[in-house]
Amino acid sequence: MAKSVEEFNKKRLRSSNITVVISIALVLFLLGLMGLILINAQKYSDYLKEQLVVNAYFDENYDAKDSVKIVKQEADAVQQIQKLESVKRTTYISKKMASEEAKKSLGVNSEALFEDDIFPASVEIALKPEYTDSTKIGAVLSQIKSVPGIVDVKNDSDSQKIYDKLNKILKWILAFCVLFLVLAIVLINNSIRLKVFSKRFIIKTMQLVGAKRRFILTPFIKEALVLGLLGAVLALLALSGLWHYFTTTIKTPFVQDTNQYVWLVLLIFGVGIFITILSTIVATWRFLRSNVDDLYYS
């Protein structure tokens, strides 16, 4: 009879541990998924912002005898623009290149219409993502226009509005990730509290026979550490499988910066271990401080 009771308690304990591990793994998996979405949304947003092209135009009215001097002046201007903190890359477009591009856009093959290269030389400027929002781009355009040789600067205002909306979307995604992190902490905490609650009589019995609080807490903390690690490993295995599916089957352009993923892995392990241990200590301490009669109403 005693053996059957012992086996029953072992099965119940095993079942309880499996339930807690699965709960932790599911919560951490969803947390990691939100982290992946945030990382890649930020990277894709930066990629789109880098497509915002600012066009800086050179003066097209000059004498043919000054062409050599003008070419040098334009080259110096391009170098000066490239050195600006807000500029990611520059592309110089000569008058001839501008004419060729215009012919392609208009579908015109006749050289007569463009024989004098009627379009001015210019520089296509791609800005760094952090300088594309409406609060900063005005100062950037003024800075580019102040470069010697530049007579006009233009950018796509419609694209500018889209990029401003991207910033708002990213803020909402970040806020949702923070909210989900809080929910993850609450859910893991509840799973651990239920597990400790099932052992409240054991905790109190050990205390009544003279066991010190540290002695009682130690095995619970070790168990919480193992459960947190197992939950984090299962969550990461599931995320790895999902990652492999998207990168090999769907060919989605994910972020290639491994440092960001390392931080995400550390976050998952950190949340899984820290919350399980902290919740275990808090829940166990509660029963250590309670009276015997309170155990029946907890």
UniProtKB/TrEMBL annotation:
Predominant location category: membrane
Domain FtsX extracellular: 54-153
The UniProt record lists the keyword Cell membrane: yes
Pfam families with a match to the protein in the record: FtsX, FtsX_ECD
Entry annotated with the keyword Membrane: yes
Subcellular location: Cell inner membrane; Cell membrane
GO-annotated cellular components: plasma membrane
One of the protein's GO biological processes: cell division
Topology term for the membrane: Multi-pass membrane protein
TM segment ranges: 20-39, 169-192, 224-246, 261-288
Coiled-coil segments on the chain, per record: none
Keywords: Cell cycle, Cell division, Cell inner membrane, Cell membrane, Membrane, Transmembrane, Transmembrane helix
Domain ABC3 transporter permease C-terminal: residue ranges: 175-291
InterPro entries referenced in this protein's UniProt entry, alphabetically: ABC3_permease_C, FtsX, FtsX_ECD
UniProt record similarity statement: Belongs to the ABC-4 integral membrane protein family. FtsX subfamily.
Entry-linked PANTHER family: CELL DIVISION PROTEIN FTSX
Biological role stated in the UniProt entry: Required for cell division and gliding motility.
Name of the featured protein: Cell division protein FtsX
